[in-house]
Write a structure and sequence with these properties.
Blueprint: E1 2-3, E2 6-7, E3 10-14, E4 23-30, H1 36-55, E5 60-67, E6 71-78, H2 80-88, H3 99-105, H4 115-125, E7 133-140, E8 144-145, H5 156-159, E9 163-169, E10 181-182, H6 186-190, E11 195-197, H7 212-218, E12 220-224, E13 233-240, E14 245-253
Parallel strand pairs: 4-5, 4-7, 7-9, 9-11
Antiparallel strand pairs: 1-2, 1-13, 3-12, 5-6, 8-10, 13-14
Helix pairs in contact: 1-2
């Protein structure tokens, strides 16, 4: 860890059973008509995955945004059971009109499915913990359609530097990519996420294949002492490991207090 070219004194703490990094995980799900074949599998897969993460004792909370041409619903962070209750009540006539649900339904409209719009909504409005990793899993079978929502391109995932986006794609082979019909997994390319392709009915969906659990259990917490925490700095982080290495630099970084 370097600050303005100078190495910083740091303490590295390995994540363990008594030191699990918190994760706030949001599932953004395309609920348009073309996703009808997948909906039951996606709902079961999401609930099973959330329950399994909790059963491992991981420090994780779950949120949800459903979207079509607009945002159809929203659940702020809670337990796997609360997530299950919400998803399994989706088609019922009764809905819990929470403030977050109402806010989502009034967030605006797009002319097509736009997963980045759903992610940006959750990123801005949800009640994140200060020390939590922000992880998104986006389910769709359509391009990221930005007509009528030109601020919500896949490149926005590059600018939201505190998130990672994983993509579950059930759209099969698709030729009609264009400036306004973006490849949705480009959000993952921008944010150190991964893309998973499943069948058109999502019958082979297995969220355990996402590297989320490995990341949570293999992470380290790095605490460093700045020489001057009250001004902006150029901070360089270098990771060297038997499996991965690389360097990332942040310009004009201002520390949160």
């Amino acid at each position: 860890m370097e600050e303005d070219g100078n190495a910083l004194p740091c303490k590295v703490i390995k994540v363990g059973q008594d030191n699990v990094l918190p994760v706030d995980m949001v599932f953004t799900i395309d609920v348009s008509g073309s996703m009808d074949d997948e909906q039951d599998q996606v709902r079961r897969g999401v609930v099973d995955f959330a329950q399994e993460l909790e059963s491992k004792g991981l420090n994780v909370r779950f949120g949800l945004v459903t979207y079509e041409g607009d945002l159809k619903g929203s659940l702020d962070f809670g337990t796997a059971q609360e997530l299950s209750d919400y998803l399994n009540g989706y088609r019922s006539s009764y809905r819990n009109r929470s403030p977050m649900e109402i806010l989502a339904r009034n967030a605006g409209k797009t002319k097509g499915e736009n997963g980045m719009f759903a992610i940006a909504f959750a990123h801005h409005h949800f009640n994140y913990r200060d020390d939590a990793q922000k992880v998104f899993v986006n389910f769709t079978d359509e391009p990221n359609q930005i007509e009528g929502a030109y601020h919500y391109t896949t490149q926005l995932a590059c600018q939201l530097t505190d998130i990672s986006v994983h993509t579950v794609w059930s759209g099969g082979h698709f030729n009609d990519w264009s400036r306004i019909y973006e490849r949705p997994w480009e959000m993952s390319d921008c944010s150190n996420g991964v893309a998973m392709e499943v069948r058109s009915d999502a019958s082979d969906l297995n969220l355990r294949e996402l590297p989320i659990v490995q990341v949570m259990t293999s992470s380290v917490l790095v605490e460093c002492a700045s020489r001057n925490p009250n001004q902006s700095h150029t901070v360089t982080i270098t990771v060297q490991d038997i499996n991965a290495d690389g360097t990332v630099t942040y310009e004009n970084l201002i520390y949160e207090k």
